[in-house]
Amino acid sequence: MVVKAMFSGLKHVFKRRMTVKYPNQRLKLTERYRGRHILDISECTSCQLCSKTCPTKAITMVPLVEKPLNEEPPEKPLNEEAPKKKKREEVYSQISYELCVFCGLCVDSCPKSALTMTHSFELSDYDRKNLVYTPEQLSEIPSEEEGRYVTVFTKSGVSHHAD
Ligand code: SF4
Ligand code: SF4
């Protein structure tokens, strides 16, 4: 019995490894891998389609915390009539990565392509609060460090190269 178990283990010594020593070795992700989102605030029209499409209710629409000073509306002259249509509320996607299942439906539904996804997947944190990404955080491009995927599987085993 013991010999049989040893033989079974030994067989795998000469087989191609299917695992990598993460985080020192990383897998090369496919081009269309769905990782952390990027929000282009300047393209977003606050239509809220992304949050309505999200199947897990991971997206909340919130105003920006810090508004640029030059975005204050100019003072209205006293004799000017009030606008008939109410302007759309300026709210932007805030995503909770506690709830997001990376399905990409929000990206598909965005009519302005303001929401896209990156290869960044290292989002774990000890504090659940940090899993909620504000629009400002989502507009930041992930660092190069987050985007290095340098290990690929080949027929002869695992190979490493700069991506
Ligand atoms: S990827 Fe899917 S689950 Fe995540 S925020 Fe978008 S729609 Fe919601
Ligand atoms: S990210 Fe796209 S879908 Fe979401 S509110 Fe902005 S424009 Fe609309």
Briefly characterize the structure.
With 163 residues, the protein is α+β, with helices and mostly antiparallel strands. It has helices spanning 2-13, 49-53, 105-109, 135-138, and strands at 37-39, 59-62, 92-96, 115-117, 132-133, 151-154, 157-160.
Based on the structure given, which CATH architecture is correct? 2-Layer Sandwich
Shape: elongated
Q: Give the names of the bound compounds.
A: iron/sulfur cluster
What is the strand arrangement across the widest sheet? 2-3-5
The structural class is: alpha+beta
Key traits:
163 residues; alpha+beta; Alpha-Beta Plaits; three-stranded antiparallel sheet; two-stranded antiparallel ribbon; 16% helix; elongated; disordered C terminus; binds iron/sulfur cluster
